[in-house]
From TrEMBL:
<keyword id="KW-0732">Signal</keyword>
<comment type="similarity">
    <text>Belongs to the leucine-binding protein family.</text>
</comment>
<feature type="signal peptide">
    <location>
        <begin position="1"/>
        <end position="22"/>
    </location>
</feature>
<dbReference type="InterPro" id="IPR028081">
    <property type="entry name" value="Leu-bd"/>
</dbReference>
<dbReference type="Pfam" id="PF13458">
    <property type="entry name" value="Peripla_BP_6"/>
</dbReference>
<dbReference type="InterPro" id="IPR051010">
    <property type="entry name" value="BCAA_transport"/>
</dbReference>
<protein>
    <submittedName>
        <fullName>ABC-type branched-chain amino acid transport systems periplasmic component</fullName>
    </submittedName>
</protein>
<feature type="domain" description="Leucine-binding protein">
    <location>
        <begin position="27"/>
        <end position="347"/>
    </location>
</feature>
<dbReference type="InterPro" id="IPR028082">
    <property type="entry name" value="Peripla_BP_I"/>
</dbReference>
Amino acid sequence: MRKYKLRIVWILVTMLFGVAQAEELPTIKIGIVAPVTGKSSEDMGTSIVGGAKVFLEDINQIGGILGRKVELVIRDDQAKPDRGVAVSKELVDVEKVVAVVGFGNSGVALPSSKIMQDAKIPLIISGATAAAITQSFMPPAYPTSYVFRVAPSDALQPIVMLNDLIDRRKINNIALIHDESPYGILGKRSVLEELARRKIKAVDVESFKTGDQDLTVQLQRAKDSGAQAIVMYCLHVDAAVIVKTAQKLHMNVPIVGPWTISHQTFSDNLGSSAEGVRTTVTFIENELNFRTNEFATAYKRINKVSRIPSAMAAAQTYDALRLLTLAIYKANSTDGTKIQAALENLDNRTTSTVISRYFKPFSPLDHEAISLNMILMGEIHNGKVVYAYKEDANENLIVRTKK
């Protein structure tokens, strides 16, 4: 008994010493970039920051990383590419961050990623989904890429959407409507490539400028083409206009879209009109799943809110920071080059992440942590995102890992 008590005392002393040591050492600075005030992107931005704050509380409660407290250096890119580049340079040159996590918009992430790549500072994208973001920096273009992602690539989301429409609902006459931003244009390309792979041609392809409030002409053409379903590629605010216009034209067909449709503002803007619209998701709040529920509860407590504006953006950011932590431990260093190499060689299954129990999420030729089997179809029901298929709901306790 005496030996046991001495052991407990020794553990407590060691822990207290570690915490005291962490307070004396300089903090480890990690940059967080998000469109907190960006038009049509606030759900992503506030959720990226909110998810990062959950991580910060968790990690600093156990003394930080390598005996040093973690400090988040948060910057608002306002959903503007030039602003994204400016804050990226500030994080690298002035704040001297060891890594960066975030970015919600593909048009902002694309030029901003180049800043981190050139500075050899690891970047883990947790929101923006354009396939080109990670592809642009892979070999042979660059011998070593510093750009990683924990979010579903637009190379994969169209596969999931078309699996739903074509394979499961047996619909081939599909119209595509997209915005003319880099996100919408790259998304359109991915959808058309997947349709071509299936030897199917879209019955109609329409585009619009971000923020357009009258899409009657585009939706009427889609209706006249005989479309039996609509695929959208745009942000959630514009998606709400598409849904409203389709209903005004009595175009009662299935409508699916990418992960942006899962943002709470989409349902808020549409009310009951959002019922049945489907979206690709990696994360759904579920009170039956302990880890999911624990994360959602912590998010609401720490951020003093009653709901998560973009649950996916929050969860993906949390997981990205957890993977970054493991890489810093593995590298035993805050040097960017060593962290990058460690990220490509994470070979211990994670236990504290939310979306997955990641095992070898990255490799030198693959910087995408989310694989096809980890993306599900969600459906708007009573203002919330739920599983579109019962079998997915029944399997909610099964952790999907990368294949």
